[in-house]
């Protein structure tokens, strides 16, 4: 397949950076300038600058921009409060909202020609998932202390040697399923769009897939958010 | 979003994990048993840990299925 044209990579190549032509390059500089890294920084820059530029001063009677951001943040918070309770939602809101917005924008950015989704690289999604996984167990330890191990023991005492590895295996399966679902969906979207652009881009062949891509991006961002919420609330509640 | 749509979204997220959890539980169990056999015990215990942890992976997969099936909020 043709190599997609990514404008940040082109600019960096002109500036003399060692942009890799494989998925992940060799050496420090090549790794830093590989497309999924540069587009992650673009998404971060967008997420920092967009509220700064549109929001300005926060007022009592919201204008257009402030209305938009208030709806977005308020909607996210009430969505989280429904699933993990007011208190947990307020505690975990900064982290989970960051994940939701970042993954949403990172999924959507790949729909534009010349951009790619950083989430179509397994390294990015695995990074997000590992943060969620570690935070889950930190929350469990914080809420239950040493008794958190009861979550892994099952209900019957003499079945503990059997249940403990089984629970560990299902916890590790969460990492894989969470990261590979996001990666697989977005990578499939990107690859399909690339192939359709190459075959019949002049006849608008990718158009239906672009519409589907918007849907997939939103659904996958929501699913990642929801599953992290479910894991967190599972770690916070009592073992039964 | 209305509350019906929200509920549907939650179910979608929950149940979309089933298939992958089954596959990955079996794979993780089998890989861990193989790793114990080959790397820790240098092949002296050859098939045993592999089969034990494969069984545990399969048990984990079915335990998850069982828990999903017994949910009260459906």
3D structure, described in words:
- The complex is a heterodimer of chains A (about 240) and B (about 70).
- Chain A is mostly helical.
- Chain A has one domain (about 35-55, about 65-235).
- Chain A is built from seven helices and no strands.
- Chain A has helices at about 5-15, 30, 35-55, 65-110, 120-145, 160-200, 205-235.
- The model of chain A has no long low-confidence stretch (mean pLDDT about 85).
- With about 70 residues, chain B is mainly α.
- Chain B has one domain.
- Helices cover about 80% and strands about 0% of the residues of chain B.
- Chain B is built from three helices and no strands.
- Chain B has helices at about 5-15, 20-40, 45-70.
- Chain B is elongated and about 60 Å long.
- The interface of A and B includes residues 219, 226 and 227 of A.
* Mean pLDDT, all residues of chain A: 86
The total strand number of chain A stands at 0
Count the helices of chain B. How many? Answer: 3
Taking the alpha carbons of the first and last residues of chain B, their distance comes to 20 Å
One letter per element, helices H and strands E, the order of chain A comes to HHHHHHH
Report the oligomer: heterodimer
Helix content of chain A: over 70%
Question: Most extensive interface: pair and counts?
Answer: A-B, 22 and 23 residues
Which residues of chain B sit in consecutive blocks of at least 5 with pLDDT less than 50? Answer: none
Overall 3D shape of chain A? globular
> Main beta sheet of chain B, described?
none
Helix share, percent of chain B? over 70%
Number of domains of chain A: 1
From the N-terminal CA to the C-terminal CA of chain A, the straight-line distance is: 53 Å
Binned strand content of chain B: under 5%
Radius of gyration of chain B: 17 Å
Provide mean pLDDT of chain B, rounded.
85
Which of globular, elongated, flat, extended, rod-shaped describes the shape of chain B?
elongated
**Structural class of the secondary elements of chain A?**
mainly alpha
DSSP, total strands of chain B: 0
Largest sheet: number of strands, sense, barrel closure of chain A: none
